Amino acid sequence: MQKYGGTSVGDADRIRAVADHVARTKKQGDDVVVVVSAMGKTTDSLIRLADDVSKIQPGRELDMLLTAGERISMALLCMALAELGVKATSFTGSQAGIITDSTHTKARIIEIKGDRLKETIKEGSVPVVAGFQGVSLEKDVTTLGRGGSDTTAVALATALGAQACEIYTDVSGVFTADPRVEPNARKLHKISFEEMLEIAASGGKVLALRSVEFARRHKVALHVRSSFTWESGTWIVEEEKGMEEAIVSAVTHDTSEAKITVTKVPDRPGIAAGLFRALADEAINVDMIVQNTSRDGNTDISFTVPKADLDTAVKVAKQVIPTIGGTEVLADPDVARVSLVGAGMRTHPGVTARTFETLASHDINIEMISTSSIRISCMVRAGVVEEAVRALHEEFELS
Ligand code: ASP
Ligand code: MG
After folding, report:
1. Contact 69, 39 (CB under 8 A)
2. Edge-to-edge strands of the sheet including 2-4?
3. Taking CA atoms, which of 221, 295, 297, 313 is between 20 and 30 Å from 125?
4. How many Å lie between the centroid of ligand 2 and the Cα of residue 165?
5. What would the 3-class secondary structure string for 271-326 be?
6. Which domains does the chain have, with CATH numbers?
7. What is the rounded distance in angstroms from the CA atom of residue 132 to the CA atom of residue 137?
8. What letter would DSSP give residue 10?
């Protein structure tokens, strides 16, 4: 399985370069299935176009629009392959048999009917599949959420029993930090699914979170690598026993979330449930949650949501205030999160203390904290998050 992201197929030359690589793979005797993203920033442009046309964008119609981007790439790549004498056939998500639920703009894959692709492979043709899309049981075209082509690739790799799933992109792998923020960031050669999950969830933009979840569940080894240099990249694999675990593998940051605070809600059973049920029903992903202990029977609840969902989340929170109680809903988009990820944290105490000390020595205030067994995340002011990344990268000697 080879998946090519937007920049990898960004213009005619790039598409020909990708075709050349696919042709070589095929000539080496490997069967290959290709998944493509929309060219360059096509998806962003289409979203902007929709915004210019109308404030009301039914999910079904938005999906119909956005899936057009991947159709362009798949057809052009097949033409480029034809010129190289390689038989190739393009498929929309629907034609490839990717069946999803009906949650437009963030649908989940229910089932993959791989027979048509398998037949195509048997006939010696290379299937080129449009990423990021499927078809619902109601037979409407759906999309899998931004960055969803990775998920398409991993899901197809599973369904077809691919040996490996190569994710070609414009960076050469997964780094210890975003190299644009920390110039001393280093490429990681191999990390575990668990670490990659935490990296993706905390802002490492190389892979979509869902695709990593899928890969871990189905044990599909991923190889993230560059389609510009074609050098070997980062392998994401099952944690191996005896694998020397770095205490900290990477520092990530994320500026895509906003903070919402609901003030003075009653501190009794069912209140948080009422609030987060209402958000869940709108399919809003809540990330960090902080609730203070109450002293007078009331408490503030703060949580983060994707900035794109901020308006909806505020609306929902305001709607439930009359039922759950609470005074005000405050929105704060000016936050950012810095996270440390490393499987070795499980067995090395003190990482949290060192993290806090490092931020304190840079006079950076921590507003929210969340942890897992292999991650520590701190919400800070957006303006200081890059300084926080560099400070932690240095403290944990990641360069
Ligand atoms: N074209 C879609 C996006 O930009 C899907 C993808 O690239 O994975 O989000
Ligand atoms: Mg993309």
Report:
1. yes
2. 88-91, 126-130, 34-36, 2-4, 165-169, 222-226, 234-237, 190-192
3. 221
4. 16
5. HHHHHHHHHHHCCCCCCCEEECCCCCCEEEEEEEEEHHHHHHHHHHHHHHHHHHCC
6. 2-170 (3.40.1160.10)
7. 17
8. S
- Summarised one tens digit per residue, pLDDT across range 59-110 is 999 999 999 999 999 999 999 999 999 999 999 999 999 999 999 999 999 9
pTM: 0.84
More confident residue, 362 or 350: 362
Q: Is the CB of 38 under 6 A from ligand 1?
A: yes
Distance between CA 220 and CA 32 in Å, rounded?
15
259 within 8 A of 309, measured Cβ to Cβ:
no
Residues in the chain, total: 399
Distance, C-alpha 94 to centroid of its chain: 22
For ligand 1, say whether the CB of 37 is within 6 Å of any of its atoms: yes
Question: Would the CB of 154 count as within 6 Å of ligand 1?
Answer: no
The DSSP call for residue 187 is B
Centre of ligand 1 from the C-alpha of residue 7, in Å: 10
